[in-house]
Amino acid sequence: MIETDILIIGAGPTGLFAVFEAGLLKLKCHIIDALPQPGGQLAELYPKKPIYDIPGYPEVLAGDLVTNLMEQIKQFQPGFTLGETAETIEKLEDGSFIVTTNEGTKHLAKAIAIAGGLGTFEPRKPILKDIEFYEKEDRGVDYFVKDPEKYRGKNIVISGGGDSALDWSIFLSDVAASVTLVHRRNEFRGALDSVEKVQELKSAGKIKLITPGEVIGFKGSERIESVDIEVNGARMNVVTDYFIPLFGLTPKLGPIANWGLEIEKNAIKVNNALDYQTNIEGIYAIGDVNIYPGKLKLILCGFHEATLMCQSVYQRLNPGKKYVLKYTTVSGVDGFDGTRKEAEKAVVKSIE
Amino acid sequence: MANDVTITITDREGISHEVQAPTDMNMNIMELVRAYELAPEGTIGICGGMAMCASCQCYVLNDFPLPEKSDDEQAMLWEAFNVKENSRLGCQIHITEDLDGLEIELAPEA
Ligand SMILES: Cc1cc2nc3c(=O)[nH]c(=O)nc-3n(C[C@H](O)[C@H](O)[C@H](O)COP(=O)(O)OP(=O)(O)OC[C@H]3O[C@@H](n4cnc5c(N)ncnc54)[C@H](O)[C@@H]3O)c2cc1C
Ligand code: FES
Protein backbone atom coordinates (compact mmCIF):
# COMPACT_ATOMS: atom_id res chain seq x y z
CA MET A 1 0.00 0.00 0.00
CA ILE A 2 1.31 3.42 -1.00
CA GLU A 3 0.99 5.93 1.88
CA THR A 4 0.99 9.70 1.58
CA ASP A 5 -0.38 12.90 3.09
CA ILE A 6 -2.19 14.25 0.03
CA LEU A 7 -3.16 11.92 -2.80
CA ILE A 8 -3.58 13.91 -5.99
CA ILE A 9 -5.73 12.43 -8.75
CA GLY A 10 -4.57 13.97 -12.02
CA ALA A 11 -1.05 14.98 -13.09
CA GLY A 12 -2.09 18.05 -15.07
CA PRO A 13 -0.58 21.45 -14.24
CA THR A 14 -2.92 21.87 -11.25
CA GLY A 15 -1.98 18.53 -9.69
CA LEU A 16 1.73 19.10 -10.31
CA PHE A 17 1.78 22.57 -8.77
CA ALA A 18 -0.16 21.29 -5.75
CA VAL A 19 2.90 19.13 -4.95
CA PHE A 20 5.00 22.29 -4.64
CA GLU A 21 2.56 24.14 -2.40
CA ALA A 22 2.10 21.04 -0.24
CA GLY A 23 5.88 20.62 -0.02
CA LEU A 24 6.28 24.11 1.43
CA LEU A 25 3.98 22.96 4.22
CA LYS A 26 5.95 19.73 4.68
CA LEU A 27 3.11 17.61 3.29
CA LYS A 28 4.03 14.63 1.08
CA CYS A 29 2.16 14.01 -2.17
CA HIS A 30 1.55 11.07 -4.46
CA ILE A 31 -0.05 11.50 -7.90
CA ILE A 32 -2.18 9.09 -9.92
CA ASP A 33 -2.81 9.64 -13.62
CA ALA A 34 -4.53 7.51 -16.20
CA LEU A 35 -2.09 8.69 -18.85
CA PRO A 36 1.42 7.26 -19.04
CA GLN A 37 2.99 10.72 -18.78
CA PRO A 38 2.40 13.78 -16.55
CA GLY A 39 1.06 17.07 -17.95
CA GLY A 40 -2.67 16.47 -18.48
CA GLN A 41 -4.15 18.40 -21.40
CA LEU A 42 -0.87 20.23 -21.98
CA ALA A 43 0.98 17.01 -22.70
CA GLU A 44 -1.85 15.14 -24.39
CA LEU A 45 -3.50 17.82 -26.51
CA TYR A 46 -1.11 20.65 -27.22
CA PRO A 47 2.52 20.06 -26.14
CA LYS A 48 4.00 22.11 -29.01
CA LYS A 49 1.60 25.07 -28.72
CA PRO A 50 2.64 28.27 -26.99
CA ILE A 51 0.69 29.56 -23.97
CA TYR A 52 0.66 33.32 -23.50
CA ASP A 53 -1.18 33.84 -20.21
CA ILE A 54 1.12 32.34 -17.59
CA PRO A 55 2.22 35.30 -15.46
CA GLY A 56 5.86 36.09 -16.03
CA TYR A 57 6.14 34.02 -19.20
CA PRO A 58 5.41 36.12 -22.28
CA GLU A 59 5.32 32.80 -24.13
CA VAL A 60 5.93 29.22 -23.07
CA LEU A 61 5.34 25.93 -24.90
CA ALA A 62 2.84 23.74 -23.05
CA GLY A 63 5.36 20.88 -23.04
CA ASP A 64 8.05 23.14 -21.56
CA LEU A 65 5.69 24.35 -18.83
CA VAL A 66 5.16 20.71 -17.83
CA THR A 67 8.93 20.07 -17.84
CA ASN A 68 9.44 23.15 -15.63
CA LEU A 69 6.67 22.14 -13.23
CA MET A 70 8.28 18.70 -12.90
CA GLU A 71 11.65 20.35 -12.21
CA GLN A 72 10.08 22.68 -9.62
CA ILE A 73 8.53 19.80 -7.63
CA LYS A 74 11.45 17.38 -7.90
CA GLN A 75 12.78 18.47 -4.50
CA PHE A 76 9.52 17.37 -2.86
CA GLN A 77 9.92 13.83 -4.24
CA PRO A 78 6.32 13.09 -5.18
CA GLY A 79 5.39 9.50 -5.94
CA PHE A 80 3.65 8.65 -9.21
CA THR A 81 1.21 5.94 -10.23
CA LEU A 82 1.03 6.53 -13.97
CA GLY A 83 -1.04 4.72 -16.59
CA GLU A 84 -3.66 3.77 -14.00
CA THR A 85 -7.11 5.23 -13.37
CA ALA A 86 -8.31 6.02 -9.85
CA GLU A 87 -11.39 3.86 -9.73
CA THR A 88 -12.76 3.90 -6.17
CA ILE A 89 -12.46 5.99 -2.99
CA GLU A 90 -13.20 4.57 0.41
CA LYS A 91 -13.33 6.77 3.52
CA LEU A 92 -11.98 5.17 6.70
CA GLU A 93 -13.24 5.87 10.21
CA ASP A 94 -10.22 8.00 11.12
CA GLY A 95 -10.98 10.36 8.21
CA SER A 96 -8.30 9.02 5.87
CA PHE A 97 -8.98 7.49 2.47
CA ILE A 98 -8.08 4.44 0.41
CA VAL A 99 -8.00 4.98 -3.34
CA THR A 100 -7.77 1.94 -5.60
CA THR A 101 -6.89 2.07 -9.27
CA ASN A 102 -8.22 -0.04 -12.13
CA GLU A 103 -5.08 -2.17 -11.79
CA GLY A 104 -5.71 -2.73 -8.10
CA THR A 105 -2.94 -0.43 -6.76
CA LYS A 106 -4.00 0.85 -3.33
CA HIS A 107 -3.15 4.26 -1.89
CA LEU A 108 -3.75 5.41 1.69
CA ALA A 109 -3.98 9.19 2.14
CA LYS A 110 -4.96 11.74 4.77
CA ALA A 111 -6.56 13.98 2.15
CA ILE A 112 -7.55 13.71 -1.50
CA ALA A 113 -7.16 16.39 -4.12
CA ILE A 114 -9.03 15.60 -7.32
CA ALA A 115 -7.26 17.48 -10.09
CA GLY A 116 -8.84 15.39 -12.83
CA GLY A 117 -9.38 18.15 -15.42
CA LEU A 118 -11.90 17.09 -18.03
CA GLY A 119 -11.65 13.51 -16.79
CA THR A 120 -9.78 10.49 -18.06
CA PHE A 121 -8.88 10.35 -21.71
CA GLU A 122 -10.77 7.48 -23.29
CA PRO A 123 -10.37 6.09 -26.81
CA ARG A 124 -12.82 7.21 -29.47
CA LYS A 125 -14.48 4.00 -30.53
CA PRO A 126 -15.65 3.29 -34.07
CA ILE A 127 -19.36 2.69 -34.36
CA LEU A 128 -19.40 -1.04 -35.14
CA LYS A 129 -21.87 -3.78 -34.24
CA ASP A 130 -20.64 -6.07 -31.45
CA ILE A 131 -17.49 -4.04 -30.78
CA GLU A 132 -18.31 -4.05 -27.03
CA PHE A 133 -18.25 -7.85 -27.04
CA TYR A 134 -14.84 -8.10 -28.71
CA GLU A 135 -13.18 -5.40 -26.59
CA LYS A 136 -13.56 -7.46 -23.40
CA GLU A 137 -11.42 -10.31 -22.04
CA ASP A 138 -8.82 -10.29 -24.80
CA ARG A 139 -11.30 -11.16 -27.54
CA GLY A 140 -9.34 -9.16 -30.10
CA VAL A 141 -10.25 -5.45 -29.98
CA ASP A 142 -7.66 -3.25 -28.24
CA TYR A 143 -7.67 0.55 -28.11
CA PHE A 144 -4.17 0.91 -26.67
CA VAL A 145 -0.94 -0.95 -27.25
CA LYS A 146 0.18 -1.50 -23.68
CA ASP A 147 2.59 -4.36 -24.16
CA PRO A 148 3.79 -4.87 -27.75
CA GLU A 149 4.99 -8.37 -26.83
CA LYS A 150 1.34 -9.44 -26.67
CA TYR A 151 1.24 -9.15 -30.47
CA ARG A 152 4.38 -11.16 -31.21
CA GLY A 153 3.69 -13.57 -34.06
CA LYS A 154 0.06 -12.47 -34.38
CA ASN A 155 -1.87 -10.95 -37.27
CA ILE A 156 -2.87 -7.34 -36.58
CA VAL A 157 -5.24 -4.91 -38.27
CA ILE A 158 -4.78 -1.27 -37.26
CA SER A 159 -7.10 1.52 -38.37
CA GLY A 160 -6.68 5.28 -38.25
CA GLY A 161 -4.79 7.95 -40.15
CA GLY A 162 -2.92 9.86 -37.46
CA ASP A 163 0.40 9.57 -35.69
CA SER A 164 -0.47 6.70 -33.36
CA ALA A 165 -1.83 4.52 -36.19
CA LEU A 166 1.36 5.17 -38.18
CA ASP A 167 3.74 4.77 -35.24
CA TRP A 168 2.25 1.50 -34.01
CA SER A 169 2.08 0.07 -37.52
CA ILE A 170 5.79 0.77 -37.87
CA PHE A 171 6.66 -0.62 -34.45
CA LEU A 172 4.53 -3.74 -34.68
CA SER A 173 5.72 -4.57 -38.20
CA ASP A 174 8.83 -5.89 -36.47
CA VAL A 175 6.94 -7.86 -33.84
CA ALA A 176 3.73 -9.16 -35.41
CA ALA A 177 3.34 -11.87 -38.05
CA SER A 178 1.48 -9.36 -40.24
CA VAL A 179 0.32 -5.75 -39.95
CA THR A 180 -2.53 -4.36 -42.05
CA LEU A 181 -3.17 -0.62 -41.83
CA VAL A 182 -6.63 0.52 -42.89
CA HIS A 183 -7.44 4.19 -43.42
CA ARG A 184 -10.36 5.96 -45.01
CA ARG A 185 -8.11 8.09 -47.20
CA ASN A 186 -4.87 7.77 -49.07
CA GLU A 187 -3.55 10.79 -47.19
CA PHE A 188 -2.28 10.42 -43.61
CA ARG A 189 -2.06 13.14 -41.02
CA GLY A 190 1.14 12.41 -39.19
CA ALA A 191 4.81 13.31 -39.01
CA LEU A 192 6.31 13.21 -42.49
CA ASP A 193 9.03 10.72 -41.57
CA SER A 194 6.44 8.29 -40.16
CA VAL A 195 4.44 8.49 -43.40
CA GLU A 196 7.64 7.84 -45.37
CA LYS A 197 8.61 4.93 -43.12
CA VAL A 198 5.19 3.30 -43.65
CA GLN A 199 5.64 3.79 -47.39
CA GLU A 200 9.02 2.05 -47.15
CA LEU A 201 7.64 -0.85 -45.08
CA LYS A 202 4.76 -1.21 -47.51
CA SER A 203 7.18 -1.46 -50.43
CA ALA A 204 9.22 -4.02 -48.50
CA GLY A 205 6.04 -6.06 -47.94
CA LYS A 206 6.17 -5.64 -44.15
CA ILE A 207 2.96 -3.60 -43.87
CA LYS A 208 -0.18 -4.15 -45.92
CA LEU A 209 -1.92 -0.85 -46.63
CA ILE A 210 -5.64 -0.71 -47.38
CA THR A 211 -6.76 2.77 -48.47
CA PRO A 212 -9.33 4.17 -48.85
CA GLY A 213 -10.87 1.53 -46.66
CA GLU A 214 -12.88 1.10 -43.51
CA VAL A 215 -13.41 -1.80 -41.12
CA ILE A 216 -17.16 -2.43 -41.11
CA GLY A 217 -17.58 -5.64 -39.10
CA PHE A 218 -16.11 -8.70 -37.41
CA LYS A 219 -16.28 -12.45 -37.76
CA GLY A 220 -15.58 -14.96 -34.99
CA SER A 221 -17.66 -16.47 -32.21
CA GLU A 222 -15.35 -16.64 -29.15
CA ARG A 223 -12.95 -13.97 -30.32
CA ILE A 224 -12.11 -12.11 -33.52
CA GLU A 225 -11.12 -14.32 -36.42
CA SER A 226 -11.35 -11.78 -39.22
CA VAL A 227 -12.56 -8.27 -40.04
CA ASP A 228 -14.69 -7.14 -42.96
CA ILE A 229 -13.29 -4.14 -44.77
CA GLU A 230 -15.01 -1.94 -47.31
CA VAL A 231 -12.60 -0.82 -50.03
CA ASN A 232 -13.81 1.47 -52.81
CA GLY A 233 -17.37 0.23 -52.42
CA ALA A 234 -16.32 -3.46 -52.53
CA ARG A 235 -15.96 -5.79 -49.53
CA MET A 236 -13.04 -7.86 -48.46
CA ASN A 237 -12.26 -10.03 -45.47
CA VAL A 238 -8.92 -10.04 -43.67
CA VAL A 239 -7.99 -12.80 -41.22
CA THR A 240 -6.64 -11.31 -38.00
CA ASP A 241 -6.03 -11.97 -34.31
CA TYR A 242 -6.33 -8.34 -33.25
CA PHE A 243 -8.08 -5.19 -34.43
CA ILE A 244 -6.61 -1.99 -33.00
CA PRO A 245 -8.65 1.15 -33.84
CA LEU A 246 -6.59 4.28 -33.12
CA PHE A 247 -8.88 7.28 -33.56
CA GLY A 248 -7.60 9.49 -30.76
CA LEU A 249 -8.72 10.08 -27.20
CA THR A 250 -11.56 12.06 -25.74
CA PRO A 251 -11.93 13.00 -22.07
CA LYS A 252 -14.83 11.62 -20.06
CA LEU A 253 -15.45 12.34 -16.37
CA GLY A 254 -15.20 8.56 -15.87
CA PRO A 255 -15.05 7.01 -12.38
CA ILE A 256 -15.07 10.46 -10.71
CA ALA A 257 -18.80 10.60 -11.45
CA ASN A 258 -19.41 7.62 -9.12
CA TRP A 259 -17.76 8.88 -5.95
CA GLY A 260 -20.82 10.44 -4.35
CA LEU A 261 -19.64 13.96 -5.11
CA GLU A 262 -22.03 16.71 -6.12
CA ILE A 263 -21.71 17.12 -9.87
CA GLU A 264 -22.90 20.02 -12.01
CA LYS A 265 -22.21 20.49 -15.71
CA ASN A 266 -19.75 17.57 -15.78
CA ALA A 267 -17.69 19.12 -12.96
CA ILE A 268 -17.45 18.77 -9.16
CA LYS A 269 -19.11 21.42 -7.04
CA VAL A 270 -16.82 23.03 -4.45
CA ASN A 271 -16.98 25.86 -1.93
CA ASN A 272 -14.64 28.30 -3.61
CA ALA A 273 -14.99 31.05 -1.04
CA LEU A 274 -13.12 28.84 1.40
CA ASP A 275 -10.86 26.03 0.28
CA TYR A 276 -12.25 24.09 -2.74
CA GLN A 277 -13.51 21.25 -0.59
CA THR A 278 -16.29 19.09 -2.05
CA ASN A 279 -19.40 17.87 -0.25
CA ILE A 280 -17.24 15.10 1.30
CA GLU A 281 -14.91 16.39 4.02
CA GLY A 282 -11.27 15.77 3.18
CA ILE A 283 -11.87 15.51 -0.57
CA TYR A 284 -10.97 18.62 -2.51
CA ALA A 285 -11.40 19.35 -6.23
CA ILE A 286 -9.08 21.79 -7.98
CA GLY A 287 -8.45 22.97 -11.53
CA ASP A 288 -10.66 22.28 -14.54
CA VAL A 289 -12.55 19.52 -12.71
CA ASN A 290 -14.34 21.84 -10.28
CA ILE A 291 -17.18 24.29 -10.65
CA TYR A 292 -18.34 27.29 -8.63
CA PRO A 293 -19.93 30.61 -9.54
CA GLY A 294 -17.57 32.47 -11.84
CA LYS A 295 -15.25 29.49 -12.49
CA LEU A 296 -12.69 29.91 -15.28
CA LYS A 297 -10.91 26.88 -16.69
CA LEU A 298 -7.42 28.34 -16.87
CA ILE A 299 -4.06 27.07 -15.72
CA LEU A 300 -3.43 30.00 -13.43
CA CYS A 301 -6.80 29.51 -11.71
CA GLY A 302 -5.81 25.87 -11.05
CA PHE A 303 -2.52 27.06 -9.48
CA HIS A 304 -4.39 29.44 -7.17
CA GLU A 305 -6.90 26.78 -6.15
CA ALA A 306 -4.07 24.29 -5.46
CA THR A 307 -2.45 26.80 -3.11
CA LEU A 308 -5.57 27.43 -1.04
CA MET A 309 -6.39 23.71 -0.96
CA CYS A 310 -2.96 22.87 0.53
CA GLN A 311 -3.37 25.49 3.27
CA SER A 312 -6.72 23.95 4.18
CA VAL A 313 -5.29 20.41 4.29
CA TYR A 314 -2.48 21.68 6.55
CA GLN A 315 -5.00 23.22 8.96
CA ARG A 316 -7.10 20.06 8.92
CA LEU A 317 -4.15 17.81 9.69
CA ASN A 318 -2.63 20.19 12.26
CA PRO A 319 -5.68 21.64 14.03
CA GLY A 320 -3.83 23.35 16.87
CA LYS A 321 -0.92 24.72 14.86
CA LYS A 322 -0.76 28.29 13.67
CA TYR A 323 0.57 28.63 10.15
CA VAL A 324 2.02 31.95 9.12
CA LEU A 325 2.21 32.65 5.41
CA LYS A 326 5.81 32.88 4.30
CA TYR A 327 7.39 34.17 1.12
CA THR A 328 9.72 31.68 -0.57
CA THR A 329 12.00 34.59 -1.50
CA VAL A 330 12.61 35.27 2.17
CA SER A 331 12.23 31.90 3.86
CA GLY A 332 13.68 29.73 1.08
CA VAL A 333 12.51 26.24 0.14
CA ASP A 334 13.48 23.05 1.98
CA GLY A 335 13.20 19.99 -0.23
CA PHE A 336 12.46 16.54 1.15
CA ASP A 337 15.69 15.42 -0.48
CA GLY A 338 17.78 17.52 1.91
CA THR A 339 18.27 20.36 -0.55
CA ARG A 340 17.77 23.92 0.50
CA LYS A 341 17.13 26.80 -1.86
CA GLU A 342 17.64 30.28 -0.57
CA ALA A 343 18.23 33.73 -1.94
CA GLU A 344 21.82 34.90 -1.44
CA LYS A 345 22.23 37.22 1.52
CA ALA A 346 23.45 40.67 0.65
CA VAL A 347 26.96 41.32 2.00
CA VAL A 348 27.02 43.63 4.99
CA LYS A 349 29.95 45.91 4.80
CA SER A 350 30.61 48.83 7.03
CA ILE A 351 31.23 52.22 5.53
CA GLU A 352 33.98 54.18 7.15
CA MET B 1 -19.18 48.68 -34.28
CA ALA B 2 -19.58 45.47 -36.20
CA ASN B 3 -23.06 43.98 -36.36
CA ASP B 4 -24.22 40.77 -34.77
CA VAL B 5 -25.43 38.04 -37.11
CA THR B 6 -28.23 35.54 -36.60
CA ILE B 7 -27.32 31.85 -36.68
CA THR B 8 -29.70 28.93 -36.12
CA ILE B 9 -28.22 25.97 -34.24
CA THR B 10 -30.04 22.67 -33.73
CA ASP B 11 -28.66 20.98 -30.62
CA ARG B 12 -28.13 17.24 -30.09
CA GLU B 13 -31.64 16.93 -28.65
CA GLY B 14 -33.08 18.26 -31.89
CA ILE B 15 -34.06 21.62 -30.42
CA SER B 16 -33.44 24.60 -32.65
CA HIS B 17 -32.01 27.84 -31.22
CA GLU B 18 -31.77 31.16 -33.04
CA VAL B 19 -28.77 32.96 -31.54
CA GLN B 20 -27.10 36.31 -32.03
CA ALA B 21 -23.42 35.96 -32.79
CA PRO B 22 -20.91 38.81 -32.45
CA THR B 23 -18.64 39.41 -35.43
CA ASP B 24 -16.09 41.52 -33.58
CA MET B 25 -14.77 38.99 -31.04
CA ASN B 26 -12.83 36.63 -33.30
CA MET B 27 -15.23 33.83 -32.32
CA ASN B 28 -15.94 30.61 -34.15
CA ILE B 29 -19.07 28.44 -34.25
CA MET B 30 -17.73 26.00 -31.64
CA GLU B 31 -17.17 28.87 -29.21
CA LEU B 32 -20.62 30.24 -30.00
CA VAL B 33 -22.19 26.88 -29.06
CA ARG B 34 -20.22 26.95 -25.81
CA ALA B 35 -21.13 30.54 -25.07
CA TYR B 36 -24.84 29.78 -25.38
CA GLU B 37 -24.39 26.44 -23.58
CA LEU B 38 -26.07 24.48 -26.36
CA ALA B 39 -24.03 21.33 -25.62
CA PRO B 40 -23.02 19.96 -22.19
CA GLU B 41 -19.57 20.91 -20.85
CA GLY B 42 -16.87 18.53 -21.94
CA THR B 43 -18.71 17.42 -25.08
CA ILE B 44 -17.67 20.18 -27.46
CA GLY B 45 -14.42 22.01 -28.07
CA ILE B 46 -12.22 19.40 -26.43
CA CYS B 47 -9.09 20.23 -28.43
CA GLY B 48 -9.71 23.93 -27.91
CA GLY B 49 -10.41 24.52 -31.60
CA MET B 50 -7.31 22.97 -33.14
CA ALA B 51 -9.17 20.70 -35.61
CA MET B 52 -7.93 17.75 -33.62
CA CYS B 53 -10.98 16.20 -31.96
CA ALA B 54 -14.08 16.64 -34.16
CA SER B 55 -16.20 17.20 -31.05
CA CYS B 56 -17.46 20.37 -32.76
CA GLN B 57 -18.60 18.63 -35.93
CA CYS B 58 -21.80 20.12 -37.35
CA TYR B 59 -23.95 19.72 -40.44
CA VAL B 60 -24.60 22.80 -42.55
CA LEU B 61 -28.34 22.77 -43.23
CA ASN B 62 -28.81 25.58 -45.71
CA ASP B 63 -27.00 26.35 -48.91
CA PHE B 64 -24.31 28.67 -47.67
CA PRO B 65 -21.10 29.81 -49.32
CA LEU B 66 -18.75 28.93 -46.44
CA PRO B 67 -14.98 29.25 -46.78
CA GLU B 68 -13.20 26.15 -48.14
CA LYS B 69 -12.06 23.47 -45.70
CA SER B 70 -8.41 23.71 -44.76
CA ASP B 71 -6.21 20.59 -45.00
CA ASP B 72 -6.43 20.18 -41.23
CA GLU B 73 -10.21 20.33 -41.21
CA GLN B 74 -10.40 17.94 -44.13
CA ALA B 75 -8.03 15.46 -42.46
CA MET B 76 -9.95 15.54 -39.17
CA LEU B 77 -13.24 14.92 -40.94
CA TRP B 78 -11.72 11.87 -42.62
CA GLU B 79 -10.99 10.46 -39.17
CA ALA B 80 -14.29 11.47 -37.54
CA PHE B 81 -17.46 9.44 -37.11
CA ASN B 82 -20.99 10.29 -38.37
CA VAL B 83 -19.52 12.38 -41.17
CA LYS B 84 -21.86 13.49 -43.96
CA GLU B 85 -21.46 15.50 -47.18
CA ASN B 86 -22.39 18.70 -45.32
CA SER B 87 -20.13 18.12 -42.30
CA ARG B 88 -17.90 20.93 -41.09
CA LEU B 89 -15.86 21.56 -37.95
CA GLY B 90 -17.48 24.41 -36.04
CA CYS B 91 -14.13 25.56 -34.66
CA GLN B 92 -12.83 26.20 -38.17
CA ILE B 93 -15.71 28.49 -39.15
CA HIS B 94 -15.06 32.04 -38.02
CA ILE B 95 -18.05 34.23 -37.44
CA THR B 96 -18.18 37.03 -39.98
CA GLU B 97 -21.00 39.17 -41.33
CA ASP B 98 -21.30 36.76 -44.26
CA LEU B 99 -22.69 34.11 -41.92
CA ASP B 100 -25.99 35.91 -41.25
CA GLY B 101 -28.76 33.34 -41.65
CA LEU B 102 -26.54 30.24 -41.40
CA GLU B 103 -28.32 27.13 -40.13
CA ILE B 104 -26.40 24.24 -38.62
CA GLU B 105 -27.06 21.09 -36.62
CA LEU B 106 -24.61 19.61 -34.11
CA ALA B 107 -23.41 16.13 -35.07
CA PRO B 108 -23.91 13.38 -32.44
CA GLU B 109 -21.33 13.10 -29.70
CA ALA B 110 -18.71 10.46 -30.56
C1 LIG C 1 -5.99 23.44 -26.96
C2 LIG C 1 -6.03 24.00 -25.58
C3 LIG C 1 -5.39 25.20 -25.33
C4 LIG C 1 -5.40 25.75 -24.05
N1 LIG C 1 -4.75 26.93 -23.85
C5 LIG C 1 -4.71 27.45 -22.59
C6 LIG C 1 -4.02 28.68 -22.34
O1 LIG C 1 -3.47 29.31 -23.27
N2 LIG C 1 -3.99 29.15 -21.07
C7 LIG C 1 -4.62 28.51 -20.02
O2 LIG C 1 -4.53 28.98 -18.89
N3 LIG C 1 -5.29 27.36 -20.25
C8 LIG C 1 -5.36 26.83 -21.50
N4 LIG C 1 -6.07 25.67 -21.72
C9 LIG C 1 -6.77 25.06 -20.58
C10 LIG C 1 -5.78 24.29 -19.72
O3 LIG C 1 -5.13 23.31 -20.51
C11 LIG C 1 -6.52 23.66 -18.56
O4 LIG C 1 -7.10 24.67 -17.78
C12 LIG C 1 -5.56 22.86 -17.69
O5 LIG C 1 -4.97 21.80 -18.42
C13 LIG C 1 -6.29 22.29 -16.49
O6 LIG C 1 -5.36 21.60 -15.73
P1 LIG C 1 -5.79 20.48 -14.72
O7 LIG C 1 -4.53 20.06 -14.07
O8 LIG C 1 -6.89 20.98 -13.87
O9 LIG C 1 -6.40 19.31 -15.61
P2 LIG C 1 -5.85 18.50 -16.87
O10 LIG C 1 -4.76 19.19 -17.57
O11 LIG C 1 -7.07 18.15 -17.66
O12 LIG C 1 -5.27 17.17 -16.21
C14 LIG C 1 -6.12 16.26 -15.60
C15 LIG C 1 -5.48 14.91 -15.53
O13 LIG C 1 -6.26 14.07 -14.68
C16 LIG C 1 -6.25 12.76 -15.18
N5 LIG C 1 -7.40 12.05 -14.62
C17 LIG C 1 -8.71 12.40 -14.66
N6 LIG C 1 -9.47 11.52 -14.00
C18 LIG C 1 -8.62 10.57 -13.54
C19 LIG C 1 -8.80 9.38 -12.78
N7 LIG C 1 -9.99 8.98 -12.35
N8 LIG C 1 -7.69 8.64 -12.51
C20 LIG C 1 -6.47 9.01 -12.94
N9 LIG C 1 -6.24 10.13 -13.64
C21 LIG C 1 -7.31 10.90 -13.93
C22 LIG C 1 -6.27 12.93 -16.67
O14 LIG C 1 -5.71 11.81 -17.31
C23 LIG C 1 -5.42 14.19 -16.87
O15 LIG C 1 -4.08 13.88 -17.16
C24 LIG C 1 -6.08 25.10 -22.99
C25 LIG C 1 -6.73 23.89 -23.24
C26 LIG C 1 -6.72 23.33 -24.52
C27 LIG C 1 -7.40 22.04 -24.75
S1 FES D 1 -12.89 21.77 -31.21
FE1 FES D 1 -11.71 20.05 -31.67
S2 FES D 1 -11.98 19.89 -33.78
FE2 FES D 1 -13.11 21.62 -33.31
Protein traits:
heterodimer; A: 352 residues; alpha/beta; FAD/NAD(P)-binding domain; 2 domains; seven-stranded mixed β-sheet; B: 110 residues; alpha+beta; Ubiquitin-like (UB roll); five-stranded mixed β-sheet; 2 helices; 5 strands
Structure in words:
The complex is a heterodimer of chains A (352) and B (110). Chain A has 2 domains: 2-121 and 250-341, FAD/NAD(P)-binding domain; 125-247, FAD/NAD(P)-binding domain, CATH 3.50.50. The mean pLDDT of chain A is 94. In chain A, helix 1 (13-24) packs parallel to helix 3 (62-73), helix 1 packs parallel to helix 7 (299-317) and helix 5 packs parallel to helix 6 (192-203). In chain A, strand 3 and strand 4 form a beta hairpin. In chain A, the strands form 7 sheets. In chain A, strands 1, 2, 5, 6, 7, 8 and 20 form a 7-stranded mixed β-sheet that branches. Chain A has 352 residues and is an alpha/beta fold. The longest helix of chain A is centred in the last third of the chain and has 19 residues, at 299-317. In chain A, 22% of the residues lie in helices and 28% in strands. By secondary structure, chain B is of the alpha+beta class. Chain B has a single domain (4-106), classed as Roll (Ubiquitin-like (UB roll)), CATH 3.10.20.30. Chain B has a 5-stranded mixed β-sheet, covered by helices on one side. The radius of gyration of chain B is 13 Å and the shape is globular. In chain B, 35% of the residues are buried. The model of chain B has no long low-confidence stretch (mean pLDDT 92). Classes of the chains: A alpha/beta (352), B alpha+beta (110). Bound molecules: flavin-adenine dinucleotide (FAD) and FE2/S2 (inorganic) cluster. FE2/S2 (inorganic) cluster is lined by residues 30, 45-47, 49, 51-56, 76, 89, 91 of chain B. Residues 30, 45-47, 49, 51-56, 76, 89, 91 of chain B line the site of FE2/S2 (inorganic) cluster.
Short description:
The complex is a heterodimer of chains A (352) and B (110). Chain A is α/β, with parallel strands linked by helices and 352 residues long.
